[in-house]
Here is the input.
Amino acid sequence: MKQIALYGKGGIGKSTTAANISAALALRGLDVLQIGCDPKRDSTRMLVQGRLIPTVMDLVRERGDAGISREDVVYTGFAGVKCVEAGGPEPGVGCAGRGIIATFQVLERLGALCADVVVYDVLGDVVCGGFAMPMREGYAQEVYLVTSGELMSLYAANNICKAIARLSSRTRGTCRLAGVICNARDVRGEEELVGEFARRIGSTLVGFIPRDPVVQQAELNRKTVVEFAPESRQAAIYRDLAARILENRRMDIPVPLGMEELETLAYEFTP
Amino acid sequence: MNSPLEGGCTLTGALSVTTEIEGAVTVIHGPAGCAHHNFSLFHALCAGRDDPVLPAIVSTDLSESDIIFGGEESLERTIREVAAAGNCSLVCVLQTCVSGAIGDDVDSVCGEDYGVPVVPIPTAGFLGGGFHDGHVRALLSLVPPARGGKKTISANIVGEKTLEFEREAHYGEVSRLLSAIGVPVCTRFVCRSSVEGISRLPQGAVNILRDPSMVAVGEHLEAEFGTPYVSSFPLGPSGTICFLEELGEILSLDVSTAVAGEEARQERIFWEFRHLRGERIRFGEASGHADSLGACREIAEAAGMAIHPSGRQVPVPDPFPVGTGGIRKVLSLWRRACRARV
Here is the structure.
């Protein structure tokens, strides 16, 4: 079982990337499970025709931990991708990080964490131990950083490197950095910049996703690009990325950059 | 190791105040375990004092789901249940580490109308402080609003350590000294008090703090009601005399008769223990605070005992017995230590 996690700045396109990778892997005949670890529960929407599926946390709230079965939380989407949403509290109350921990305990108990490939799509940044939980407990063994060439996006990616470096230094730690994915924002020199960032943190750029209006069109039609426009160039890019991830054996303990180094790097590549 | 008094959390510190108020119910906003441990502690203490009263503690019994989704609804529901039961005149709300960590807006929930006064006390288990912080914050939160009540020649007793085993003995000695100068106790803030008693706090003409650790409360009451304070219960012979003189000055009373009477009483005690004259004693290194050690030296000297490194080790009681009555207790302890010699 291959267990990958996508981390990166909020709004960078992790869910779109995750859903398209899951769809592409499923079309190759693999049994794929995608788990959205974000209270706004929109990770799997494009895989289930735009629905917001019931979340693990909503069901725990309604029925209690014991009243939930695997069928209640696992929904089948496009090409048979199994979809789970962790869910969480309303904004401004409670502790979503604790919600992630509770969700994994429920999924573990239900035996729901099994597939050829499990894709964890984790909220924006590793803001607390709860959100680092998929990494820490060895659920997510391969972390992909999703970033653009924008400074704040690189900053978030660099922060996540710190979390990976910290967790992988522990004897129990099995989590490693598998690579960097650039979800382009049309910043000039973006591919080179993100490639250089990946190199400096001791990793590699595994995929460059250019900006393309078909992504928005697919989203408006409540589908992944892979489903909505399978012949498009963008769909081919997602399929190619999925194939690379499947074959990727690279596992690094990253070396995070200092803030100054990060800024200098971004400055060097800005025309 | 810290004693529970020094090393407990803000919750236990605040409970040592709120559980003393007759008619008050304390809601502990957190998992049931926090309430259970504290209930056990206070229950055991009451039982040890042959006091059959169970501490009025209710838990919001937060579950994991409350922690994830927020515990404000549980808190509101619990306060409503407590208020609806109809047998309380005050609800005090304390937070635990858990509710503090997830950031429940306790002040807003307590601000709703429940038909009884609801006082949130800023505690959060071990977050942000220890037992002493909880004790002080509870007192500060319970200060009644300033009202036009007229001051009378009377004293408030402020910041008693309610978990102290000898607390009633200490209080008894202080009230004896007060009655010697004709000053009644207005209210105890708070030890065996009621909500009505607490509301009389502004009427006291002087606040007598249990010890200097309560100065923050004394300062606050002085700023709020213009009431001056004496910073500690009296310790040792001269400490007791100074205590009377300080009160005399603050309240503009002639205390000379009371002072003379107290000095005579002290003389009698030292005469009673005259057989200890010439005993060589020393005090344990780690025992007692600076004030207690000062009082010990004075008592030893007045009793004609010699403090010497090779002397018999005698205890420095903690808490140190207060007032003239305390001198007798200390000398009794030391006599026992001296007689234990083979």
DSSP finds eleven helices and eight strands in chain A. Chain A touches chain B through 15 residues (CB under 8 Å). The beta strands of chain A are 2-8, 32-37, 75-76, 82-85, 117-122, 142-147, 176-183, 205-209.
